[in-house]
Design brief:
The complex is a heterodimer of chains A (546) and B (638).
Chain A (H helix, E strand, L loop, with lengths): L1 H10 L1 H18 L7 H25 L8 E9 L4 E7 L4 H16 L8 H20 L3 H10 L1 H11 L4 H34 L6 H4 L6 H18 L8 H8 L2 H26 L1 H6 L1 H20 L4 H22 L2 H32 L10 H4 L1 H14 L6 H16 L1 H7 L1 H18 L6 H4 L6 H19 L2 H24 L10 H8 L22
Antiparallel strand pairs in A: 1-2
Helix pairs in contact in A: 1-2, 2-3, 2-5, 3-4, 3-5, 4-5, 4-12, 4-16, 5-6, 5-7, 5-12, 6-8, 7-8, 8-10, 8-11, 10-12, 11-15, 12-15, 12-16, 14-15, 14-20, 14-21, 15-16, 15-19, 15-21, 16-18, 16-19, 16-23, 16-24, 18-21, 19-20, 19-23
Chain B lengths: L1 H9 L4 H22 L1 H25 L6 E11 L2 E9 L1 H24 L6 H20 L3 H19 L6 H32 L4 H10 L7 H18 L8 H4 L5 H10 L4 H8 L1 H4 L3 H23 L4 H21 L3 H28 L12 H4 L1 H15 L5 H14 L8 H27 L14 H16 L4 H8 L15 H7 L1 H16 L1 H10 L1 H8 L4 H50 L4 H26 L1
Antiparallel strand pairs in B: 1-2
Helix pairs in contact in B: 2-3, 2-5, 3-4, 3-5, 4-5, 4-11, 4-16, 4-21, 5-6, 6-7, 6-11, 7-9, 9-12, 9-14, 11-16, 12-16, 14-15, 14-20, 15-16, 15-19, 15-20, 16-18, 16-19, 16-21, 18-20, 18-21, 19-20, 20-24, 24-25
The chains are: A mainly alpha (546), B mainly alpha (638).
Chain lengths: 546, 638
């Protein structure tokens, strides 16, 4: 037994991280039911998710930042007929997303005390969701990635559909249909990518490191990028694919909102940086202006619409659209500073928006309303609550020395060198962010208490404080000393950026092909000359995976 | 461990880290201890502030002439060419700023112990006040743009928290929000300046940028980008230092406790923009267009605010507009390239304006939170110390020799008159500035007369404030009186760190100086006569010119104009985007797709009707569709 655990920890650490939560579902299943056992369920699941967090810390310890490729790789054949592999690995881009997931999960479970309806099912769905999310971040095989990607949908569907608010059915349907629409496009695109790869190299492979060698015809590449891009854009969500988000957030239970904002919204961005951009370097370059425009529009639009909201959760949901716009901008600007900033911002958004949803949950548990106008003057009645709310508000509006500033600053600073005009507009988001968040804080916290029910509200309990403190710590840790996290992310990001630049410079854009003699000579000089059916491009560098 | 630390800190240099550390610790301790023992927090915070002052003094006295102490605490961010260290630099400029911030800060902390004695959440107050000192010290000690920006936003946060300190009053809380948001507009400009600077110089460190600019062979190539950086920086300065068009938050900021107005909204924070210009002089010096803009905006702001101050009845509003106006004077000096003069006026202004605000606090305290000067009057006999210090400070700000205000303001006016950047406009703007200086004397004397002279018009029994409040008043009034005599020393000291650009300190005989201040004295006498003996004339003038009077009293309706043409359209837009674009267009399309799918299904059910002809028809239609689709597919992938 001990030997087995030792082997698992040594050779299959990532699998252990992915599947431990799934094992927890079994646990929950075999504990006898009964409403008096609520505390037991929550306690066991909490400890279990803590175990997952510890395992993921082990990943961090074993991780060598200087190494730019995938690490702790497990790669074995899974479906022989199509050479589908069970391949997982972690690099500097994904490692903190994994940690964010395992870090948020115990907090979410701790915050589940307000769930009364079938707590066991709720917790089981949470654990299942955790496995799916971790798998998505760690998969190196496109098929495996897609599997986990779709697997995330089910628990989220149930979490909103069963434990959600009054309009939960509409919200779930909208969420699922939106996502499935994108996923189907992606599935078709995945098969086409594998097909082209097969035509080019004569072997079927879903492994990302193999597929990255594939060279597409330019037009094909653009269409495939669109298919992947729409799937990811819906998931981010990028304007104008965002309208499922406010509904899903408003109807989701507190824990669901935290996971949705904290981790699920990172999936689309992760998809872009792991697959969308590297698989289709030229297409992503072609669509860069469009993506940048959508990102900036999202930043400003999300902030303005957030300002108009009367429901606290909707306000925070629209603020996510704005914040994620920054991440997209940082990715499309494609340099080390902006890309690092985007990854840090993904973590920050998970931390501060997750915390804001927890805070809204605290109010909802007490008053069962999320209408801003129902509140007012809470700061005098709930001083500790007001303190936490203030800190996470400041983190959300990116005040220096909180985490939010580090991400936003790096993104804008980095993007400025390649797209200054976009940044000049994106900076407006800095102003608008302060407007809607401080207006929210003003309306909820300041003034006199005029609603009688608010006068009787009790301040946060110790259990609730326990959910905020780790997040508070992270707000200041990343805000004051981001260098350690940056130093872990940086080598992988540098590698990614230089790889992308190299790839874009090698693969000739069609407008040059044939026109410029120099470029033509350049393409002839490579040995393995043809892409799919005599394509206009070549790739001769042996690029060893991302 | 402790021994090593002690050894480290024995060197003068390492005290630098202590300068901001004391207030930071003070903020934490005074809050936590104050939770249990409210009365202690004020003393802890004051102690922290005084310790910080002592640390500043230690570093200042060990700083060799013309040197810069640099301390690098840790690497904040190091990524892709950007190397942002958390580092401090201590030179003559930061020395002067630190001394003012911690010196005046300590006095105001002590004053607050008594002023806030009755407040039930004073531990929060003192924690914020210490936190403000911490941020302000980061701002003036920062060795690069980023550390300066941390302080820059940090003081904005503390200002927000302290303006809305009595948050149960929604109007006060709204004033805090307004201050933060207006400042954020400036900060966005500041951020763009940092981006541009990094893009141009590939570093954000002040000394490195300065060295790079000095080494450029052909500086004229860089003038456009330097001008852009300077203008963006100045956008930041208009926010923090309350200049046109972003000054509107400062008068509202008077909602905060009066010592806060003295420290943050008069003596220190609002001067951050002036400090920043002096700090980045190597950029502004090569941006003549930006300098002309700074000069013009400073001059215009000074005039505008001074005219508004004449018609205000709230004593703190008068002082607030006076602050805006005086900041305009500082920018006039900075815009002429006379950075040291700007800092000189910053220092003297810190003394007399802090004194004036604290006096007004003393008066407000005595009159049971009455701020309307129409309900004051005759307080001179009831509050002699407050009156005497207010009088000294009023003469100082009016520029009467030999008080400090004369020396700094005279230096500004003479520098501004020969401003090289405004060309033909120099003499015109110079005379506007001189006229504004007379207005200053007039409205300050007006406030003095209304508050302290005549007979008491209120219903309370005002009495002199306790010693903890009057002592800082006396110290500040004393400083405001004599600080001008050190103008020459200050000039020598400051020009070690910042270029003098040919502006020197002029030593004058006392009689000569007094002669120069005669016009201001005339304005004082005029105001005195008008508001104590001949106030019917004032009333008559107000009656005959109702349009002008109400425009002045309502601050030219600037707030209303901003509300009507900026805030409300933006709010309307956000509502329209939500209801119109988000819910109608996008969601309409999404839900419409779903509806169409449902309807299609319904229709297709009708198609299965068992008639061969219609099946054939559909088949033909299908073939056409396949052909079209195949063609498209072939175009795309073929």
């Amino acid at each position: 037994m001990v030997e087995a655990i030792k082997i698992i920890l040594e050779r299959h650490l990532l699998s252990a991280v992915i599947f431990t939560p799934l094992l927890g579902v079994l646990w929950l299943y075999f504990i006898p039911g009964g409403s008096e056992r609520q505390k037991l369920y929550r306690g066991i699941t909490f400890l279990w998710s803590l175990l997952v967090f510890i395992l993921s810390l082990l990943v961090l310890i074993r991780f060598k930042p200087s190494n730019t490729g995938f690490q702790l790789v497990e790669n074995s054949i899974w479906i022989d007929a199509f050479n589908v592999r069970y391949a997982v690995g972690v690099d500097g881009i994904s490692i903190f997303l994994v940690l964010l997931t395992t870090f948020l999960m115990p907090i979410v479970i701790l915050a589940s005390h307000s769930v009364s309806k079938s707590l066991r099912g709720y917790l089981a769905n949470m654990l299942l969701l955790e496995s799916a999310m971790l798998g998505t971040f760690l998969a190196m095989d496109l098929f495996l990635f897609y599997l986990f990607w779709e697997l995330m949908l089910f628990p989220m569907y149930f979490l909103i559909g069963i434990w959600g608010g009054p309009r939960r059915i509409y919200a779930t349907l909208k969420f699922v249909l939106y996502t499935v629409f994108g996923s189907v496009l992606m599935l078709v695109a995945i098969f086409y990518v594998v097909y082209v790869h097969y035509k080019e190299f004569g072997e079927v492979s879903f492994l990302i490191s193999d597929l990255l060698q594939t060279v597409f015809r330019y037009r094909t590449e653009c269409i495939l990028f669109l298919a992947f891009g729409i799937a990811f854009a819906i998931k981010v969500p990028i304007f104008p694919f965002h309208t499922w988000l406010p509904d899903a957030h408003v109807e989701a239970p507190t824990g669901g909102s935290v996971v949705l904002a904290g981790v699920l919204l990172k999936m689309g961005l992760y998809g872009f940086i792991r697959f969308g951009f590297p698989l289709f370097p030229r297409a992503s370059e072609y669509f860069t202006p469009l993506l940048a425009v959508l990102a900036v529009v999202g930043i400003i639009y999300g902030a303005l619409v957030a300002w108009a909201q009367s429901d606290i959760k909707k306000l925070v949901a629209y603020s996510s659209v704005s914040h994620l716009g920054y991440c997209v901008l940082g990715f499309v600007a494609l340099n080390s500073i902006s890309t690092t900033g985007s990854i840090v911002q993904m973590l920050n958004h998970g931390i501060s928006t997750g915390a804001l949803f927890l805070l809204v949950g605290v109010l909802y548990d007490r008053r069962h309303t999320r209408e801003i106008k129902e509140y007012g003057g809470l700061a005098s009645r709930l001083p500790i609550y007001a303190f936490f709310f203030l800190v996470f508000t400041l983190s959300s509006i990116a005040l220096p020395l909180t985490n939010g500033f580090v991400g936003e600053f790096l993104i804008l600073m980095g993007s400025f060198s390649t797209m200054p005009v976009y940044v000049a507009f994106a900076v407006l988001g800095v102003i608008l962010g302060a407007i809607y968040m401080l207006t929210l804080y003003l309306k909820v916290m300041f003034g006199k208490i005029d609603e009688k029910k608010n006068g009787a509200l009790s301040d946060v309990t110790r259990g609730e404080i326990a959910t905020f403190v780790p997040l508070l710590f992270m707000v200041f840790y990343i805000g004051i000393y981001p260098q350690w996290i940056i130093s872990v992310i940086k080598p992988s990001v540098d590698h990614y950026v230089s790889w992308m630049e190299e790839r874009r410079s090698i693969l000739v854009m069609p407008k040059y092909a044939g026109k410029s003699g120099e470029k033509k000579a350049f393409s002839v000089s490579f040995e393995r000359g043809t892409g799919e059916s005599g394509a206009d491009v070549v790739d001769a560098l042996s690029i060893k995976g991302m | 461990m402790l021994q090593i630390l002690m050894d480290e800190f024995m060197e003068g240099m390492s005290y630098i880290a202590f300068i901001p550390l004391f207030p930071l610790l003070g903020a934490l301790i005074s809050y936590l201890v104050g939770l249990r023992f409210r009365w202690v927090s004020g003393w802890i915070a004051s102690l922290a502030s005084c310790l910080s002052f002592w640390a500043v003094y230690c570093v200042y006295s060990s700083l060799p002439e013309g040197e810069i102490f640099k301390v690098n605490l840790f690497t904040w961010m190091d990524v892709g060419g950007l190397k942002a260290n958390f580092s401090f630099a201590f030179d003559a400029l930061s020395a002067v700023m630190c001394l003012v911030v911690t010196g005046v800060g300590s006095l105001i902390h002590i004053y607050s112990i008594s002023y806030m004695a009755q407040d039930k959440s004073k531990h929060r107050y003192f924690a914020y006040l210490n936190l403000f000192l911490f941020s302000m010290l980061l701002l003036v000690l920062g060795a690069n743009f980023l550390v300066l920006f941390i302080g820059w936003e940090g003081v904005g946060l503390c200002s927000y928290l302290l303006i809305g300190f009595w948050f149960e009053n929604l109007e006060f809380a709204k004033a805090g929000r307004k201050a933060f948001i207006v400042n954020r507009i400036g900060d966005a400009g500041f951020l763009l300046a940092i981006f541009l600077a990094f893009y141009t110089f590939n570093t954000i460190d002040f000394s490195e940028i300065s060295a790079k600019i000095a080494n450029y062979k052909d500086i004229s190539l860089y003038v456009p980008v330097l001008t852009a950086i300077a203008l963006c920086l100045f956008v930041g300065a208009t926010g923090k230092s309350a200049q046109i068009p972003l000054y509107v938050w400062l008068p509202d900021a008077m909602a905060g406790p009066t010592p806060v107005s003295a420290l943050i909204h008069a003596a220190t924070m609002v001067t951050a923009g002036v400090y920043m210009m002096a700090r980045t002089n190597f950029i502004f010096d090569h941006a003549p267009v930006a300098m002309a803009t700074v000069s013009a905006i400073g001059c215009l702001t000074a005039l505008l605010a001074a005219t508004i101050a004449i018609a205000q009845y709230d004593i703190k509003k008068v002082l607030a507009y006076s602050t805006v106006s005086q900041l305009g004077f500082m920018f006039m000096a900075a815009g002429a390239g006379a950075y040291w003069v700007a800092i000189f006026h910053l220092v003297t202004h810190a003394f007399f304006k802090a004194c004036l605000f604290l006096c007004s606090g003393s008066v407000i305290h005595a009159c049971h939170h009455e701020q309307d000067m129409r309900k004051m009057g005759g307080l001179a006999s009831k509050m002699p110390i407050t009156f005497a210090t207010y009088l000294v400070a009023t003469f100082a700000i009016s520029g009467i020799a030999p008080l400090s205000g004369y020396y700094s303001k005279h230096a500004i006016l003479s520098a501004f008159g020969k401003n090289p950047y405004t060309g033909a406009w120099a003499s015109f703007l110079g005379s506007v500035a001189s006229f504004t200086a007379l207005l200053t004397a007039f409205y300050m004397t007006r406030s003095l007369c209304l508050t302290f002279l005549g007979r008491y018009r209120g219903h309370h029994h005002p009495h002199e404030s306790p010693i903890l409040m009057t002592l800082p008043l006396v110290v500040l009034a004393g400083s405001a009186a004599v600080a001008g005599f050190w103008g020459g020393e200050l000039y020598e000291y400051l020009t070690e760190a910042i270029p003098s650009n040919g502006y020197h300190f002029h030593y004058e005989m006392l009689g000569e100086a007094f002669g120069h201040s005669l016009p201001s004295l005339g304005a004082i006498v005029l105001a005195f006569v008008l508001y104590t003996r001949l106030d019917f004339i004032v009333a008559a003038v107000a009656r005959t010119l109702p349009a002008i009077t109400s425009a002045l009293r309502n601050k030219y309706y600037i707030d209303e104009i901003y509300g009507r043409f900026v805030v409300e359209p933006l709010k309307g837009l956000s509502y329209y985007l939500w209801r119109g674009v988000d819910q109608m267009v996008i969601d309409g399309a999404v839900n419409g797709t779903a509806t169409v799918a449902g309807l299609t299904a319904e229709m297709l059910r009708a198609v299965q009707n068992g008639r061969i002809l219609s099946y054939a028809m559909i088949m033909a239609f299908g073939v056409v569709l396949v052909l079209i689709f195949g063609g498209l597919f072939g175009w795309a992938f073929g």
